[in-house]
Amino acid sequence: VREQPIRIRLLGTAAGGGLPQWNCACANCDAARRGKIPPRTQSGIAISPGAEHWILINASPDLRAQIEAFPALHPRAASARNSPIRDVLLTNADLDHVLGLFLLRERAEKLRVHCTAAVRDTLRCALQIDAVLAGYCGIEWLELPGTMTPLIFNGMETGLAFRAIPLPGAAPRYATAAFSPSGHSVALEFADAQGGARLLVAPDVAEITPELRSAMEAAETVLFDGTFWSGDELRRVDPAARTASEMGHLPISGGSLEILRGLRARRRIYIHINNTNPILQPGSPGRAEVEKAGIVIGEDGMEFEL
Amino acid sequence: VREQPIRIRLLGTAAGGGLPQWNCACANCDAARRGKIPPRTQSGIAISPGAEHWILINASPDLRAQIEAFPALHPRAASARNSPIRDVLLTNADLDHVLGLFLLRERAEKLRVHCTAAVRDTLRCALQIDAVLAGYCGIEWLELPGTMTPLIFNGMETGLAFRAIPLPGAAPRYATAAFSPSGHSVALEFADAQGGARLLVAPDVAEITPELRSAMEAAETVLFDGTFWSGDELRRVDPAARTASEMGHLPISGGSLEILRGLRARRRIYIHINNTNPILQPGSPGRAEVEKAGIVIGEDGMEFEL
Questions:
Q1: What's the complex ipTM?
Q2: CB-based contact (8 Å) between A24 and chain B?
Q3: Structure confidence by residue, pLDDT tens digits, B30-42
Q4: Taking Cα atoms as reference points, which of A70, A96, A82, A95 lies closest to residue A8?
Q5: CB contacts < 8 Å between A and B, how many?
Q6: Record: contact B128-A131, CB cut-off 8 A
Q7: pLDDT tens, position by position, A203-221
Q8: DSSP H or E run through B225
Q9: Segment 225-244 of chain A within 8 Å of chain B by CB
Q10: What is the spatial distance between Cα A203 and Cα A185, in angstroms, rounded to a whole number?
Q11: Cβ B126–A127 below 8 Å, yes or no?
């Protein structure tokens, strides 16, 4: 019987590019550079089922800084090279969710990566990640289960169960020859071993399917796609940009806000927030609307227990 | 005639993994985590020939943090998306020198990357970087010149000239099918337009060739490979590690120290310092020896003019 609570840490809460983004001088990036609003690293979450083991959900390019900012992920003094980080679970193959895999290459054991077959094929073929990491730690691929399955480390059940919920969505832009028409994006559902409190992690949601809707209604904690406030938001800084829906994100306004407002979940938190999103500005009408609905705007370093 | 001095900034002074390295609890990484010695990001340099244009030498995985730490590399308020960063010059295809290229993908114009044909082929074939970045900014490849050549931005001479000095060295570990037996590593030499003050940048030196030796003797400033103090240093934290020479680095002790000591250069600075290197500890005998020889241990954020 598990004694310890399941710990969850938001490592990074920004969408691709982070806040500020290196080449962006929009009002939000400017405010972050001037210290008016907190900076954000790119999307990632760490979960511990206890016993000082951690798994990562997505591996952002900011992973090195995210690990250093969180002592629970540091190596122990017992030996020179070690880490409490066990497996990595991926929700998609977007560069802001996978470039951090290259940063874990110095480990001694194979890197265990759980994802869909389509995501694995994208990483293998378009990034050649198997061949690149074979020169270092190597990868062991595990397919995400479709039904609740215990997470096992070294043959021992961890007290955490998980499953993937398939979502519609295209392969990332860099995957010019995607082999599968589907399987490019998932949400992840976690439960403690008692089948009680549930956590839903959904950083990239193009559309709320019936299966996702059910999981949102059953969850104690929902971490949800807060990329864009509105569909044409990115066009204001980059006229050539695609719309939110073309990029696979349901906007908050006229989209997820109403649905999250109606959930009974104890915690509803926006994650994967793009640097153009007006909810990042204190006092903005959008932020006021989100807060009035009882929804939390996730911040880097936020921690809670399941 | 150029009016402004050539500015140089050490963006990052650590070898691959940085200081601390995510999975390392050695004395140096531990001291960096406890705030006893300054942390270091991975190897990279920025050079400005003036007019608020900058080029990068190598693109480390820490590039996003390195840009934010240096206001001269921030975008200007004039338009939402822009950057003073122009071209990138690579000294080799090591992951700690090239993963940052992926982080520049949001730019509107093609990313101009100067490197050898062997480095370009490694990045193209083993990392598929052309195909990946084609979905974003795309890459324009330029071959590094072997003789002093003016650096040109938008058809205008910048007042900076440069050339590559070939060095012995193997392709990186991830390049399982390297096509060329040579061309995997270079040092870069820069000069102002008057052909006067010279800067030599050599972060990965397996062996001091006669051509490199001449450039070291002619330079006003030498930025040199300080990866390892001794040949077997990495084995103390990782028994499976290769020696310094197997990894393409001349150690400081019994290697570069004597040669740097004898140079007439105004500045001799160690860069690309591995987290295991004892010179990182104040009061260590190695550090004392380096300092007594008048050689500077480079630090992140160090700036000077040519």
A1: 0.95
A2: yes
A3: 999 999 999 999 9
A4: A70
A5: 165
A6: no
A7: 999 999 999 999 999 999 9
A8: strand B221-225
A9: 236-238, 240
A10: 10
A11: no
